[in-house]
Amino acid sequence: MCREEKFMLYIILLFAFIVIYLMMLMRRQKDKMSEIKIQMDQLQAHHDELQKERDQLLEQMNHLEEQREHLQIQTDQSADEIEKICDEIWNHANTIHLYSSLAEEESKSITMKEKQKVIIRTTEEILNIIYKYKGNV
Predict the structure, then answer these.
(1) Residue 43 carries which DSSP code?
(2) Could you tell me the pTM of the whole model?
(3) Which are the contacts of 133, defined by CB distance < 8 A and separation ≥ 6?
(4) With 0-12 CB in 10 A as exposed, 13-18 as middle and 19+ as buried, what is 95?
(5) CA–CA distance, 137 with 119 (Å, rounded to integer)
(6) How does DSSP classify residue 109?
(7) Among candidates 104, 98, 86, which has minimal Cα distance to 124?
(8) Quick one: which of 73, 89, 71 has its CA closest to 133?
(9) Which of 67, 108, 122, 136 is the most buried (most CB within 10 A)?
């Protein structure tokens, strides 16, 4: 073999090694790209799961908010009803107290006066309970 042929052979071998080396690099890059693709797919799946969970939590939150509003309406209605009942009891207790006081003054019987005093004390206790309750409302 002549010198030029040897030189060409070396160049061809060098070119072949360079091509093989580049193919190996490309293979490594392809493997890395495959790993990155797998990681991206996993992250996307995790993102989708989190999105679904977030949507479920939002739905639950909306449902709970609706329930809270419904309970608030019921509570407000109940408070109004209790307030009305307290007003009625207050008015009736005042009426009973007034009639008992008048009956005690007009009564000539000692036992009747004692019974009227018991009624008066009881109605005063009822009025105090309602007064304390209304003070807390």
Answers:
(1) H
(2) 0.52
(3) 86
(4) exposed
(5) 27
(6) -
(7) 98
(8) 89
(9) 122
Place of tokens 């799961």: 49
Residue at 96: amino acid letter: I
Residue found under tokens 């890395």: 32
Q: What is the pLDDT of residue 136?
A: 62
Question: What is the rounded (10 degree) CA torsion for 52, 55, 60, 66?
Answer: -160
Beta-carbon contacts of residue 126 (< 8 Å; ≥ 6 apart)? 89, 93
Which of the residues in the chain have pLDDT under 70?
136-137
- As to burial, measured by CB atoms within 10 angstroms (0-12 exposed, 13-18 middle, 19+ buried), residue 2 is exposed
Residues 91-117: tens digit of each pLDDT: 999 999 888 888 888 888 888 888 888
- As given in the structure block, the two tokens for residue 63 are 């449902």
Q: For residue 83, what are its two tokens?
A: 């307030």
What is the identity of the amino acid at 98? L
Cβ atoms of 88 and 134 closer than 8 Å: no
Which token pair is 114? Answer: 């004692």
